[in-house]
């Protein structure tokens, strides 16, 4: 049986405002050990032998991507993003289906530079056998409180965490199914916050594959230090 063509997409066309980026420096270009975060994230995907190529989705006014030099085992190229993450991924899907004839896509956050090969292998092993693919995720371990929306917020209720998972990336889907699901959601004016959300709305049930706490999304200023500590210590295989 021919191996499926697996292509990675990294949406990086946003600004990442929660990290209070320096003006003109979107989060994905913040340096970690002297190299842009995006570079680490792309190279983790490109290091896997099953990944045939990586397409980064950049903002139309991006001037930094062209200066990056990737240390990658497969081709890394780019395409232009859209108004929301979902628009950006849909643009990229159209591009990679045509230019790379991708059968499956792995969509990965630019802000998860510490992806490990172990969890990526787990995702591919489980997801490629599942009709609607799979995502990395972690069972919620903290007790969940609902706040009242005020500042400071007061507790209104404790939510059950039974069967709750926190979604991570990469998220692996058949390219055609994700294309259909994202197009439908965008046409309905309901851009999902992750790709699995579009699949769910389309009636699909991707698998939840245990991720890793080290594959966190760099979101808050303290996360930069944590990511650097991991990148420094980790021996990438
Ligand atoms: O802003 P948010 O955290 O939802 O962004 C998640 C990811 O989607 C980021 O990597 C960001 O660069 C990307 N994004 C995009 N196109 C947009 C908005 C966000 O590729 N229009």
Write the layout of secondary structure elements.
Elements: E1 6-12, E2 31-32, E3 35-36, H1 37-46, E4 51-58, E5 76-80, H2 85-99, E6 104-107, H3 117-127, E7 134-139, E8 144-147, E9 155-159, E10 165-174, H4 175-187, H5 195-201, E11 207-210, H6 221-233
Parallel strand pairs: 1-4, 1-6, 4-5, 7-11
Antiparallel strand pairs: 2-3, 6-10, 7-10, 8-9
Helix pairs in contact: 2-4, 4-5
What would your notes on this structure say?
The protein has six helices and eleven strands. It has one domain (6-233): Spore Coat Polysaccharide Biosynthesis Protein SpsA, Chain A. The model has no long low-confidence stretch (mean pLDDT 94). Strands 5-4-1-6-10-7-11 form a seven-stranded mixed β-sheet, with helices on both faces. Helix 2 packs antiparallel against helix 4 (175-187) and helix 4 (175-187) crosses helix 5 (195-201). It is 29% helix and 24% strand. It is an alpha/beta fold and 237 residues long. It binds cytidine-5'-monophosphate. Cytidine-5'-monophosphate is lined by residues 11-14, 28, 57, 81-85, 88, 109-111. Cytidine-5'-monophosphate binds next to strand 1 and helix 2.
């Amino acid at each position: 049986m021919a191996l499926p063509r697996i292509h990675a997409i990294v949406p990086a066309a946003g600004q990442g405002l929660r990290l209070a980026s320096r003006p003109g420096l979107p989060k994905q270009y913040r340096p970690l050990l002297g190299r842009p975060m995006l570079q680490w994230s792309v190279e983790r995907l490109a290091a896997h032998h099953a990944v045939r190529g990586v397409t980064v989705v950049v903002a139309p006014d991006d001037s930094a991507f062209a200066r990056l030099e990737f240390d990658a085992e497969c081709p890394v190229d780019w395409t232009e993003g859209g108004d929301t993450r979902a628009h950006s991924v849909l643009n990229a899907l159209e591009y990679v289906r045509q230019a790379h004839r991708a059968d499956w896509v792995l969509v990965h956050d630019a802000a998860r530079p510490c992806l490990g090969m172990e969890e990526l292998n787990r995702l591919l092993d489980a997801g490629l056998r599942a009709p609607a693919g799979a995502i990395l995720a972690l069972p919620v371990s903290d007790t969940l409180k609902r706040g009242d929306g005020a500042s400071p917020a007061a507790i209104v209720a404790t939510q059950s965490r039974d069967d709750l998972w926190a979604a991570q990336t990469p998220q692996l889907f058949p390219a055609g199914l994700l294309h259909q699901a994202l197009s439908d959601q965008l046409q309905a004016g309901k851009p999902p916050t992750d790709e699995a959300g579009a699949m769910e709305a389309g009636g699909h049930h991707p698998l939840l594959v245990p991720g890793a706490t080290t594959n966190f999304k760099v979101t808050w200023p303290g996360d930069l230090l944590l990511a650097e500590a991991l990148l420094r210590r980790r021996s990438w295989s």
